[in-house]
Amino acid sequence: MRSYLDFEKPVADLEAKVEELRAMPSGGIGIGEELTRMEAKAAKALNDLYTSLTPWQKTQVARHPQRPHCTDYMDRLFTDFTPLAGDRKFAEDAAIIGGLCRFRGEALCVIGQERGYDTQSRLKHNFGMAKPEGYRKAVRLMELADRFGLPVLSLVDTAGAFPGIEAEERGQAEAIARSTDASLALGVPNVALVIGEGGSGGAVAIAGCNRVIMMEHAIYSVISPEGAASILWRDSTKAQDAATSMKITAQDLLKFGIIDAIVAEPTGGAHRDPEAAMDAAGDAIASALSAFGNYSPEEIRSMRAEKFLAMGRKI
């Protein structure tokens, strides 16, 4: 059953009428013509709505509960996936899933943040908010990939790193910093794909890559709109204003040179046609990785450094 966001109510009403017409016995007078008319009207309303989304509406779409998650991308795009668990220091962290696989016939290391779908899986994956052991696992996998010359793909989807006391006790900031450093230091190509919400250092920790790609309705920022509103105005209800001011959408970030490409989503968001969205993402990943096939490790590191050092410079 499709879940609608608050701003999608006009579309929800039209699509409900379409379903009512489809459920009516065939052969009724004018039903076929009315159904065709209502389907066209609903499709136009959806298209009009999604061509003019506000940053806050994009934030809601990025967090849509039916949006494809990390494990969906892994199931769709990769074969022979072998998960590797644990940081070899403290524990396994299910908020970050990683391992070795094949992508279109080529060996690859993939690291992704999984939020979970229902209460049980969300608790298991801690809502995609990794603890220090999760980032140390990511470092272990990146170093393993570097040793064997395997490209690294990061699937980013987190509200941020876990802020609990136990995470701080085990060195959360240090773990995030080391993961960021490991990502920037790789001698193999690495690509990050922001599939939903890329929040704070928890996202950057695995996104210091040669190429950073975003899904069309994903968001990527140093803090959530609610968090920024609470700090700036001491009022989380101003999240809509914060989302607009922070320039967190893929379109704004591409314009500023923070990301490198945008993957178009089906009309209505990736949750409307997950297979098409994930296939388009796969094409973008393949294109990004192919650009680094003939470069040495030193050249790959240098290009990555130049990319990040250029951010914020005036031309």
Keywords:
315 residues, eight-stranded mixed β-sheet, 2 domains, 2-enoyl-CoA Hydratase, Chain A, domain 1, alpha/beta
Folded structure, characterized:
- The structure is a single chain.
- By secondary structure, this protein is of the alpha/beta class.
- It has two domains: about 5-50; about 60-310, 2-enoyl-CoA Hydratase, Chain A, domain 1 (Alpha-Beta Complex), CATH 3.90.226.10.
- It is about 50% helix and about 15% strand.
- The chain has 14 helices and eight strands.
- The protein has helices at about 10-25, 30-50, 55-60, 70-75, 120-125, 130-150, 165-170, 170-185, 200-205, 225-230, 240-245, 250-255, 275-290, 295-310, and strands spanning about 80-85, 95-105, 105-115, 150-160, 190-200, 210-215, 220, 260-265.
- Strands 1, 2, 3, 4, 5, 6, 7 and 8 form an eight-stranded mixed sheet that branches.
- Helix 1 (about 10-25) packs antiparallel against helix 2 (about 30-50) and helix 6 (about 130-150) runs parallel beside helix 8 (about 170-185).
- The model has no long low-confidence stretch (mean pLDDT about 95).
Structure summarized in a few sentences:
The protein has 315 residues and is α/β, with parallel strands linked by helices. The protein contains 14 helices and eight strands.
Strand element count: 8
Give the N-terminus to C-terminus distance in angstroms. 49 Å
In terms of quaternary structure, the protein is: single chain
Radius of gyration: 21 Å
Strand content: 15-25%
The tally of domains stands at: 2
Helix and strand sequence = HHHHEEEHHEHHEHEEHHHEHH
Give the overall average pLDDT.
94
Identify low-pLDDT runs: none
Largest sheet: 8 strands, mixed
Helix content: 40-55%
Level-1 CATH class name of the largest domain: Alpha Beta
According to CATH, the homologous superfamily of the largest domain is: 2-enoyl-CoA Hydratase, Chain A, domain 1
Q: Determine the structural class based on helices, strands and strand pairing.
A: alpha/beta
Given the C-alpha coordinates, what overall shape results? globular
Counting DSSP H or I runs of 4 or more residues, the number of helices is: 14
CATH architecture classification of the largest domain: Alpha-Beta Complex
